[in-house]
Structures are given as structure tokens and as C-alpha cells.
Amino acid sequence: MDLGFQFPSPANLLLLLCLFIIFIFSKLLLMKKKSTPGNLPPGPWKLPLIGNMHNLIGPLPPHRKLQELSATFGAVMHLQIGELSAVVVSTPSAAKQVMKTHDINSASRPHTVATEIFTYGGASISFSDYGDYWRQLRKISTLELLSNKRVSSFRSIREEACLELARGVASHVGGPAVNLTEKLFSFEYGLVSRATLGKKTEVKERLLPILREGTGLAAGFDIADVYPSVKVLQMVSGMRRRLVKLHVEADSILDEIIRDRKVDGGGTTAVKKEGEEEDDLLGVLLRMDDDGRLEIPLTTDNVKAVLVDILTAGSETSAITIDWAMSEMLRNPRILKKAQDEVRRVFDDKGYVDESKINELKYLKSIIKETLRFHPPVPILLPRKCMRKCEIDGYEIPVDTKIMVNAWAINRDPKYWEDADCFRPERFLDSLVDYKGNHFEYIPFGAGRRMCPGISFGMANVELPLAMFLYHFDWSLPDGMKHQELDMTERSGVTARRNDDLLVIPVIKRPLALPHVT
Ligand code: HEM
């Protein structure tokens, strides 16, 4: 997933502040005092120069820290982060005002040094400004790249990749614990890159470590982002230099992939023509452009920005969801057993799991929904930018304010959720609440115009591997660890993955020699 917002570590903060305080101080002295709006949302007291940066330091990940601050200062809270004005909303009704009432007004994203570099100057779906270009990309994603029909067309790719994953896990049976987290991240990247870029593997494999390092770095803190008017900070930013280096490497691999698709000169491509079965998302994109069907023609950089977007947004989020679902089941043996009983009841007549009867797995679907409530992979969604002054809960939101929606806090609001801090999949069994952006108390995929366009693809990539894990294996924790001892701490970042990798001991309960595979 592309970056949105991240807090500084104390050491980083102190070092960077010492280095640049003179620049900033002189800059601020020269600046005319701006008039501050009269009715800003409440927030913690702001220090000169750094504003509220000191309030954000600490061991808690951002969504928890913001929830803690909101409990004191209000569900619509203003923070000053260096030069940046930010508002955090933490109730369903405030989220609805951002993502429904003022949806168009807040349908752009704030830019950072990293988004500029990694998204080819804001040309990705996630980070392009609201306007004709973004609308076109969004239409292509909804109707072509990520439509239900397209997602179904990847069924055999998914089944094959899941079987390989299960075989990988089975190869550890009787040996040391399996690092399931690591396996899940490689599996999801492999699956999404196969669907996006096609079969050739060695080139894609060179991309993975670069994208991983790039998104990891980009999720970090760069002082140039919080003092955008101090241009010299951009010049001296070490993060910028590292990101540019990674971007150049990724760019040349993507160029190679796209070049391989095109026949020399002439403009004809090796992309399949209308009517032929589509193989991958790159093919779809190139063909649409080739056919002259697009109002705004896509440059090669535009295509590369979309590819990076899908590869990053599409893989980590699904891996995190499976990782947390497995962790919660391992912590709750009753839930694990109930889920296994269901999958085995539905698939025992076949002797293997495929997508034919996946919709019969009602309890598993509830587990996934509860996982997305309890551990939303993108806990503060992606930030939005206020384009024109507006009001939320009666407070003034000035133009250019960064708006963050704390979906994690909302998903656990006890006013809307009974036993909000308990993992209880049963709550979704007969519930009409869904994640499609209409119920603002449950927004793991966001809502409004900028909500996630990859829900169907993401869910398909989560359901099948989980069903296979439950069908074929029994699971326990290594070194005699008791289920209640499993550490559930989250890592800080734009995405909230497990802090420690999940290590597990699998035991085969249904053989993996599947009849539909030769
Ligand atoms: C469990 C899986 C996933 C989760 C939890 C998730 C979550 C999210 C969230 C919270 C957002 C921000 C929404 C907002 O700002 O309101 C988002 C945006 C986005 N997601 Fe996902 N996502 C998932 C899977 C995917 C997949 C599989 C893809 C594509 C292959 C994808 C592509 C995108 C894109 C392109 C955006 C940016 C949309 C825009 O700005 O217009 N996501 N996702």
C-alpha cells in the first residue's frame, strides 16, 4: 500500500530538528503571521515550530495514539504537524461528513516527497488529484481491471497459487515452525503480480524487494514533508535520495516488462485483441490505450504508476488480513475449530478446496469481516486533502488541511459495537452491516469516491488461502506456547501488520494430493 502518514521516532525527530531548526526558525521569523481560523477543532496545545509533533511520539502505533488523544480532545481534533494543518476524525458521523457530505471537497490526497517519487509525480490511482485523469483511472479500475468479471477470470491463477502455498506449508510438517507471515507476503505478491504482469517470473521477482523497501521507507518520517516551504530540506533529504535510487531501479524493471510486451516500432503490441481472453492487467491497460478508447491517452509513466499502485496496494493488505485472521483463530481455539468444521463439512465430498463452493463458508466470511473490523490493514485509511474550507461537526476545516479518518477507532467504537474489544465473528453472521462504504461505523475499505476499488480482488485473495489452510491443516503455536500467549502487537506504519512474524506448527489433516491438479 502506498504511504499516507507516519510518525517520527524520537531519535529521528531530535536529530532532524537539531539540524534544521535554524532554517525553520529564520523562515518562520520572516513569515507574515497567518491569521488562524476562529473555530478550528480542539486539539492539544501547540509548541512553536513543531506544533504537536511531540504529542505523537511514543511506543503506540499512530491509530492508537490518535485514539488516545481524541479521547481527551474530541472526535474531531486538530493537530499542527510542523507547517501542516491536520484534522483527525474518529466517529462514524464525522467520517460520514468527510466521505459523503464533503466527499468531492475532500477527494484529493495530500502529496509527500515519497508519493511524488514513487507514483511518477502523483500519477497513480491512489495519489492522483481528484479530476479528469483520476476519474479515468478509477473508471478503468472499476469497469476493467478490478471488476468482478476480471477477478473471476483469475480463479485458476488463484487456485494454483494457493495450492503452491499449501504445499510450501506442508513441506514444513514435522520440521521447525513455519514463518507464516513471510509466506503470506510472498504468496500475495506472487498472486497479484501474476495477475498484473503475467507469467514471466524472474523479472517480477526482482521488483518485489525494491517495492517492499520503497514502501517501507516511504511510510517513514521525512522532515521535508512537514516543512514543505523550506525547500532546502528536500535537497538534503537522505530519504529522498534513497527513494529516488529505488524508484530508478523499479522503473527500469517496469520498462523492461512493458518493452517485452510491445513489438519493435510500429505501435502494434503483443497485447491480446478485443474478444480474446485477457491474461493480465498490463495487457488490458495497453490494449485499451492502443485501441484509442481512452479520452486521456496514458503515457508509459502513467501505466507504470498504475502497475506500482496495484502491486503495492493489492498484495500487502490481503497478506495482513490473512495473517491477523490466522492469529486470532490461533488465540481462540473455539473459533478455529468451528471454522475448520465448516470448511471440512462443505468440501469433504470433493476432498479439496476450490472456489466452487466458497460462498457456502458463512462462518469463514464472518471471521474475515471481524478481522477487518478488529485489525483494519489500513487503520487511518489514506489521507485526504480539504480543497475548500468546510465544516465538520460545526468546526471549520481550513483549505489544504490533511484529513485523517481513524477507521481503527471507529471500528471499535463501543457505541456501535457490543464487546467492541472482543474478537467475535458471530456478530456478523446475521448482520446487515457490510464494508461497502454505506455503514460508517465499519469502514476497513474507506468510503466515498476514494474508497478501495479492489474489494472483490482483495476478498478473493483472502478467502481461498484461508479456506485451504483450515481444510488441510491443524495448527498450533511453537515451543509449547499457549494460545493466549500469542503476542498481538501491531507494527507502526501506514499498514498495521503484526509486529512479530507469526510462527506456526502445521499438521496435515486432509492430504494435499488434489485431484484437479496434475
Ligand atoms: C483486504 C484487502 C484490502 C484492504 C483492507 C484495502 C483497503 C484500502 C483502503 C482503506 C483504501 C483507502 C480508502 C479511502 O481513502 O477511503 C484503499 C485504497 C485503494 N486500494 Fe485497497 N484495500 C485492499 C485491497 C486492494 C486490492 C486487492 C487492490 C488492487 C489490486 C487495491 C487497490 C486500491 C487502490 C488503487 C486504492 C486507491 C483508491 C483511490 O484513491 O481512488 N486494494 N484500499
UniProtKB/TrEMBL annotation:
MF (Gene Ontology): heme binding; iron ion binding; monooxygenase activity; oxidoreductase activity; oxidoreductase activity, acting on paired donors, with incorporation or reduction of molecular oxygen
Residues where heme binds: C452
Keywords recorded for this protein, A-Z: Heme, Iron, Membrane, Metal-binding, Monooxygenase, Oxidoreductase, Signal-anchor, Transmembrane, Transmembrane helix
GO cellular component: membrane
Transmembrane segments: 12-30
The family this protein is said to belong to: Belongs to the cytochrome P450 family.
Protein name (database record): Cytochrome P450
